[in-house]
């Protein structure tokens, strides 16, 4: 006799409630959740913690010997500004600690001894060539490929250029005009394009970082919690509890209830970890201001993050997890031992990893974001949670494309549930058989 809709909902709710409450009350779940909250908040506060630990540091000490070269600029002052600037020509903010401390010296021998002893990171010695140009010698214990030595070399080139221009009679004000960056804008090649392509490197890095972070969060949820559902199914089958439960509920009800219960608990844990971490991340400037005594700004969304993107992430999060969770549960019902779970769910994991990697490569530019591979795959339900999120974050997908991808994903979940239910119906009673393609085919045909 086919159960009515009311009976299905009642039994599904009963199974889901049991799974949610029973597993949520375990000590392992509580300890794991607490540890994840601590780790998440710690990672969000990592920049503040690093700045707090380094608050008394004066950075790498660099000594400069000018001698009788008589350069047209104050070399220690110019070198300090160039080395500590975030970008060339940008002065250091008053609220930040410098990474380098530049000092003048009159004794090259003593300064070289301090470099050998480690109290000084590097010594820069100036001289004049026969043609009258400044020359530089850098004494350091590290090789030329070290970032500090590369920065000093670039700063020395800038100082030499300034010295040449001053000798040619060009004032510092005119030098600033000569080297001022031109107005530069990036426009879409297609006049009909509505893509919100980032027009600056800062905007691109912001959108990439946000898209990449959201893809990682989605990938971790699907893999970790999907396997959580799979191991839960295998655990009950291994303990023969399933045979007792099947007397009161159908395989379909048991499968759906387990996915809803375990999946709901997993999502609750994810939200409990994510909310305080996100709150700390948004309030990072205010926390830094309170701890370090510097100025703070009001809380705001990071660059590249928007409310529509967050809304799409939430929808993709729920639908993507539901798709993989039901398939993980159906596949896990085919094994009799928990040791075989990883083997049977490996194809699903590979598919998920593939979608995540393509999304990562498209976000970094290794694969063109508008290539046919990425565009077509972004509508495939197994890949759309990753790829459509990345395309939207990069401004390569419009609202209609996002809506179509969500609709296809939502329509495919009942198909996946039907396949998983057939596997589950036959798999829960299969014992002692290794998970092979033949087992999968027999389970689908026999149900």
Task: Provide tags for this entry.
mainly alpha, D-Maltodextrin-Binding Protein, domain 2, four-stranded mixed β-sheet, 4 strands, 6% strand
How would you concisely characterize the structure shown here?
The protein has 447 residues and is mainly α. It is built from 17 helices and 4 strands.
Account of the protein in words:
This protein starts with a helix and ends with a helix. The chain is built from 17 helices and 4 strands. The chain has a 4-stranded mixed sheet with strand order 2-1-3-4, with helices on both faces. The chain folds into 2 domains: 11-49 and 201-446, no CATH class; 60-178, D-Maltodextrin-Binding Protein, domain 2 (3-Layer(aba) Sandwich), CATH 3.40.190. 63% of the residues lie in helices and 6% in strands. It has helices at 5-24, 27-44, 46-53, 75-84, 108-117, 147-167, 172-178, 201-238, 241-245, 251-282, 284-292, 307-332, 341-364, 372-377, 384-393, 399-427, 437-446, and strands at residues 60-65, 100-104, 122-128, 134-140. Helix 8 runs antiparallel to helix 10 and helix 10 runs antiparallel to helix 12 (307-332). By secondary structure, the protein is mainly alpha-helical.
């Amino acid at each position: 006799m086919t159960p009515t809709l009311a009976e299905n909902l009642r039994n599904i709710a009963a199974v889901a409630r049991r799974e949610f409450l029973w597993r949520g009350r375990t000590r392992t779940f509580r300890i794991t959740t607490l540890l994840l909250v601590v780790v998440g908040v710690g990672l969000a506060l990592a920049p503040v913690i690093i700045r707090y630990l380094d608050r008394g540091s004066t950075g790498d000490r660099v000594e400069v010997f000018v001698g009788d070269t008589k350069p047209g600029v104050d070399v220690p002052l110019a070198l300090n500004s160039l080395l500590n600037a975030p970008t060339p020509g940008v002065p250091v903010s008053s609220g930040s600690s410098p990474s380098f401390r530049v000092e003048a010296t009159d004794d090259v021998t003593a300064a070289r001894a301090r470099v050998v002893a480690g109290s000084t990171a590097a010594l820069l010695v100036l001289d004049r060539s026969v043609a009258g140009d400044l020359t530089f010698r850098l004494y350091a214990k590290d090789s030329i490929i070290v970032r500090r030595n590369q920065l000093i070399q670039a700063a020395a080139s800038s100082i030499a250029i300034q010295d040449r221009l001053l000798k040619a009679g060009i004032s510092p004000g005119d030098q600033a005009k000569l080297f001022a960056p031109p107005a530069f804008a990036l426009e879409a090649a297609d006049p009909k394009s509505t893509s919100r392509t980032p027009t600056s490197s800062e905007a691109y890095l912001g959108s990439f970082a946000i898209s990449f972070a959201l893809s990682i969060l989605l990938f971790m949820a699907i893999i970790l919690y999907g396997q959580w559902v799979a191991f839960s199914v295998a655990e009950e089958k291994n303990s023969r509890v399933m045979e007792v439960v099947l007397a009161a509920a159908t395989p379909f009800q048991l499968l759906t209830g387990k996915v809803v219960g375990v999946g709901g608990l997993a999502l609750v844990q994810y939200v409990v970890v994510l909310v305080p971490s996100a709150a700390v991340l948004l309030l990072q400037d205010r926390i830094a201001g309170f701890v370090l005594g510097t100025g703070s700004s009001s809380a705001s969304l990071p660059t590249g993050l928007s409310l529509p993107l967050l809304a799409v992430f939430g929808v993709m999060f729920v639908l993507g997890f539901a798709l993989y969770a039901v398939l993980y549960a159906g596949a896990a019902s085919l094994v009799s031992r928990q040791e075989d779970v990883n083997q049977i769910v490996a194809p699903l994991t590979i598919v998920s990893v593939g979608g995540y990697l393509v999304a990562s490569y498209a976000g970094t530019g290794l694969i063109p974001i508008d290539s046919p591979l990425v565009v077509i795959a972004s509508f495939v339900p197994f890949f759309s949670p990753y790829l459509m999120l990345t395309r939207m974050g990069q401004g390569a997908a419009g609202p209609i494309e996002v809506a179509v991808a969500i609709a296809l994903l939502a329509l495919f979940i009942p198909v996946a549930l039907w396949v998983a239910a057939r596997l589950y119906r036959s798999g829960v009673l299969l014992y002692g058989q290794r998970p092979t393609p033949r087992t999968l085919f027999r389970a689908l045909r026999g149900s």
